[in-house]
Protein 1
Amino acid sequence: MSEAANLIYQQDGAIGIITINRPKALNALNQATLHELDQLLDQISGNTAVKVVIITGSGEKAFVAGADITEMQSFSAIEGREFGRFGQAVFSKIENLPQPVIAAVNGFALGGGCELAMACDIRIAANTAKFGQPEVSLGIPPGFGGTQRLPRLVGKGRAQELLFTGDIIDAAEAYRIGLVNKVTTGEELMTSARAMAEKIMARAPIAVQMCKAAVNKGLDSPLPVGLAYEAEVFGLCFATADQKEGMTAFVEKRKAGFTGK
Ligand code: HXC
C-alpha cells in the first residue's frame, strides 16, 4: 500500500486499487491529484504483476465530484486550456493502460468525475451513485474528454441532452442508457468490482490486453484500419504460450492455466 497526499494505492494480489482520497472536497480533482495519478499510472503501466486496476473514491458520498472548482475559479484562458490538456492526457493514459481498468463508482461522478469513469474500460456503480456533466452551469463545457467519450458511450442524442441540460442522473438511468455496465448496492460495490477483475484475470492476459488495444484503436479509426489492427494482434497471439495452452486445454477438455506469456 502506498499513500500520496491525495491518492491511496493498494495492490491486492494482481489487482491494483486506486482510491481518490480528498473526501472533504468530495474527491474533486485538483492539479496535485492529477499529477499524483499521472505518476501512479506510469508505475502501474510498467508493473506486469498488476493484471487489472480498479479506480474508486474515498468515503461513501462521492466517486469524484468533478475538477476542483475553487482551483479553476481564477484560471486564465491559457491556464484553463493547459489544465484541460493535462487532465485529458492523464485520462488517455488510463484508457491506454495495458491493463483493463474498472471504475467502482461509489457516489457522485460529476464533471471530471464522470469523465474519469468514462476513461475506464468498465463502470460498476453503487445504486446511490449519480452521474452528470454539469459544467454548463459553471459557464464551461466539459474539458477532460466528456464531449468525446459520452457520445461514444451513450450515443449523440442522449449525450447532447446530458451536456446541454447539465442534468444529474441516478445509477439506474445510467445503466439504462449504457453509461454503466452494472449496478450493485454500496456494500457490494468493491466485491462486485473484484469479482469482475478476477473473472478477467482468469482469461489469457495478453489476449485481454490485445482486446483492449484493438477496441481503442478501432474506435479512433475507420473500420478497415481497425480490422487490419485486429488481424495483426490476432496473429501475434499465436506466438504466445497462452494460445497453445488455451487451445490444448480445450481439445483435452480441461481448464486452461494461463501464465501471461
Ligand atoms: C471543489 C467541491 C467540488 C468540486 C464539492 N466540493 N464538489 N470542491 N470542486 N467540484 C466541496 C464543496 O465545496 C464542499 O466543501 C464539500 O465538497 C462538500 O460538498 P457540498 O456541496 O457541501 O455537498 P452537497 O450539498 O451534498 O452537494 C454535493 C454536490 C455538490 C451536488 C456534488 O458538491 C456539487 O454540485 N459539486 C460540484 C459538482 C460540479 O459542478 N462538478 C463539475 C465541476 S467542473 P466545503 O468546504 O464547503 O465543505 C469539471 C470540469 C472538468 O469537473 C474539466 C476541467 C478541464
Protein 2
Amino acid sequence: EHFETLLAEKRGNVGLITLNRPQALNALNSAVMRELAESLAAYDADEAVGAIVLTGSEKAFAAGADIKEMQPVSFVEAYVGDFLGGWEAVAATRKPLIAAVSGYALGGGCELAMMCDFIIASETAKFGQPEITLGIIPGMGGSQRLTRAVGKAKAMDLVLTGRMMGAEEAEKAGLVARIVAPERLLDEALEAAAKIATFSRAAVLMAKEAVNRSDELTLAEGLRQERRLFQSLFATEDQKEGMAAFVEKRKPNFGNR
Ligand code: HXC
C-alpha cells in the first residue's frame, strides 16, 4: 500500500501506522483522515494482524487538525459535509489500537490519541486542547473523552485555557497508561501490541468491547454485558486451550481466528 500522509507496515503480527507530514508537524487534514481510516480497516480485516500501533514523529504525534485547511471552511460546508465526522472510523477500529506519543499531541492530535485504546507516552509528550486560542472548541471528542479520562476540573482547565500538559501530569491524571524514555517509545508500544497479538483473538476483541462499554452503559448494564461476553468465551477453543496449557504447565497456542 502506498499512502501520501502516513506509512503503514507490518511488524510480525502488529500493524504499525506512522503519521508522516513532517512539514506540518503531522497536522491532520482530510487526506490523513482518509488514509488512516483505510489503513485501519485493512489491518482490522487482516487475519495476521492482532493489534495496531499508531505513532507520529519524535517532535509531534500530531499538532492538531490542519489549520490551513480549516481556515476557509464555512458553517454550511462544515455542517452539510459533516466536517470531521469521518474520524469516527478510528474509534470504530475493532482490534486494539495503541497510541505511541512523542512531542506534541494537540487539538485533534490529542483527540486522535484518545480515540486509541491506550496511550504510551514518551517523556517529551505534550498534550493539550488549544482550540480556544483559534476561536473554536474541540471537535473530535476532546470535550467528552478528555473529561472522562481526567475528570471535569482538569478538562475544563485545559479546554478553557488552551495550556499544554506534560507526560507526567497526563499520566497522573489518567490520560496516559505508561511513560517511557523517548528512545524506548516505539519498542515499548510494539512489544505491548505483539504481546496482545499472541492472545486469543476473540478474547482480545471482547475485552476491548467490554471496557469500551463502560463509557456508555450504566453499571448494571455494563456488568450484565461483561458477564455475557465472559460466558460466551467458554464456547471457544481458545478458552479450552488457555486453561489446558495452564494445567499442563506449558505455553498456550491460541488459534487466533
Ligand atoms: C497546520 C501546522 C499546524 C496545524 C503546525 N503547523 N501545526 N499547520 N495545522 N495544526 C505547521 C506550521 O505552520 C509550520 O509550517 C510547521 O508546521 C512547523 O510548525 P512551527 O509552528 O514552526 O513549529 P514550532 O515553532 O516548533 O511550534 C510547534 C507548535 C505550533 C507549538 C505545535 O506549531 C502550534 O502551536 N501549532 C498549532 C497547534 C494548534 O493550535 N493545534 C490545534 C489545531 S485546532 P510553516 O509552513 O508555516 O512553517 C484543532 C481543531 C480540533 O486541532 C477540532 C477538531 C479536529
Protein 3
Amino acid sequence: PSAMREILLEVPKVYWSDIGGQKEIIQKLKESIEWPLQHPEAFSRLGIKPPKGILLYGPPGCSKTLMAKALATEAGLNFIAIKGPELFSKWVGESEKAVREVFRKARAASPSIIFFDEIDALTVKRGTNSDGGISVADRVLSQLLNELDGIEPLVNVTVVAATNRPDIIDNALLRPGRIDHILYVSPPDLSSRREIFRIQLKKMSCTMDVDIEELATETDGCSGAEIISICQDAALCAMDENLEAKEVRREHFMKALSSFTRRITPEMIQFYD
Ligand code: ATP
C-alpha cells in the first residue's frame, strides 16, 4: 500500500499576468528562483548559493499556490504538487518512502519545483503527539530534512512550501540551507484588488456602471479568492433575476457584496504581522 496516490508532474500554465498585484513578492520570488537558473555564473562569481527552499505564508486564498504555479510556468520548470497530509501513511516506513519518492521524481524532472502545500501538517512540533512515540509527522519531517541536507545535492530543484500556520512549523525546517527564505503573502492591498477585479471582469460581461474602483474599495480585507467568489456571486444574481441575462450589473455586485462575510479578520492579520 503506497502512502500516496501517484506523484504527478504538472504543467500548470499560470502566468504572472494572471496574478493581480502582489508585485513586491513576485519580484522576490523571481530573484530567488529564476535568477539562479538563468544566471548561474553570476551566483558562482559572487560566491552565493541559490536558496533550496522558500516558505510562503499568509491567510488563505491570497495567491500562494498561484505564485508557485506561475514560477514554474514562467521559468519552464516542472511542477510537483504535494499536500502535507497526503504523505501520511499508517504503514511503517511508507511515509518516509513517499517523501523520498517525491524528491527522486523532482531530481529526475529537474529543473523543477516541489510545491508542498499545507506544510504545517508534517511539521507539528516534536513531542506533541498523544501516544508518546515518534509520530508519523516526526518521521516525515526527518526524511524531509535528510532530503534537504542531502548526501545527493539538490541541483535545480527548489522547494516551495506554503502554510497558513507559520507559527507551528518546526524551526529545524527553517534553518539556513533548508527552507530559509520566508516570504509573507499578504491579503491584496487596494491596487492589487483593483488588478484582480480587472483580470476577472475581463472574462465576464458587465454593464458600464460596474466600477472597478468602487469594488476594490469595498473589498478591503478580502482575499483574492474571495474577490473571485464575489464576482461569481454577482453573475449568479444576474442569472437569478433572469436566466437569459447577458450582462452583470452594478446592483448584482452590490448584492453579492452585501451578502458576503469576510473570512480574514483583523485579528488574523495581526497574527501574521
Ligand atoms: P490556501 O492557503 O487556501 O491554499 P492560497 O494562498 O494558496 O490559498 P490560491 O490557491 O493561490 O491561494 O488562490 C485561490 C484562488 O483565488 C486562485 O485560484 C485565484 O482564482 C484567486 N486568487 C487569489 N489571489 C489572486 C490574485 N492575486 N490574482 C488573481 N486571482 C487570485
Protein 4
Amino acid sequence: RLKSEPEQFLQFAVTPFGSGDRLVFVRDVTKEARLEQMRRDFVGNVSHELRTPLTVIKGYLDTILANSGQLEPRFLRPLQQMEQQAQRMETLLKDLLWLSRIETVRSKARAEQVDVASLLQELESELQSSHPQRRLELQLECNERINGDYRELHSAASNLVLNACKYSKDDSIVTVRWRRQGQELLLSVEDRGIGIDPVHLPRLTERFYRVDDSRSSRTGGTGLGLAIVKHVAAGHNAQLRIDSKPGVGSTFTLAFPAPA
Ligand code: ADP
C-alpha cells in the first residue's frame, strides 16, 4: 500500500538477474484489493444484519418449547427441528463474523505475549466440560510465549481440537503438543480418526470446503473452521501443515517462528 496514494495497492516481486543485479516486478493490484475488501465488508454486514431477526426467532422458539406441555404433540417435533436449525444458523453467523473480523484486523492488535501452554490447559478444561467422554493428551514440552492475539490463537487451537474429536471415534485419544524444534515453535493436534484423502488437502482450508458434506453437517460443522485456522496462522506469520492418512488419522500443525 503506497503512503502517498493510500487507495493504491502494489505488489512487488524481486528476483536475481545476471551477476549481482536484481529485477523488480511491480504489479498494480488495486482493483483486486478493492474487490476483496468489498467481499469482506459484504459478508460481514450480511452476517451482522441477519443476527437480529435470528435472535427474535430463536427467542420465540425457546419460549414456546419451554411451555411444550401446552402444545399439540404433532407440533413438538417440527418446533424442535426449527430450534436446532436456528441454533445451527447462529453458530454459522458467529463463525462468519469472526472470520471477517480476523481477515480485516491489522497486526498491531496482535501484540500480546501469549502463553500457549496455559492457553492449551484452558482449552483442555473447556473440552472436559463440553465433551466429558473425550480423552485429550496434553504434551507441553516448552513454555515459550509468542507475540499474538489470545482470542485468535484460542479459536484456532479450539477448531483443530474440535475437528480432531468430530472426525475420530469417541474413545480414541487426541494428542495436543507444544514444543520447540530448531527455529520453530510447533502446536500440533493429532487424532487417530478417519483421515483425509490427499486429493482434498489443497482445498481443505477454503471456506465451506468439506470432504463429506453429509458427515460434516451431521457433526454440526460450519465448514469455516479451517478457514479460520488458516487466517489466524497468516496473521501470526505461522504455517499450517497437514499430515493425514485415510483410516489412520491426521495431524494439523501450526508452525510459528521461534523468537531469537
Ligand atoms: P467443518 O465444520 O465441516 O468441520 P472445517 O473447515 O473445520 O469444517 O474442515 C473442513 C473439512 O476438512 C471437514 O468438513 C472435514 O471433511 C475435513 N477435516 C477437518 N479436520 C479433520 C480431521 N481432523 N480429520 C478428518 N477430516 C477433517
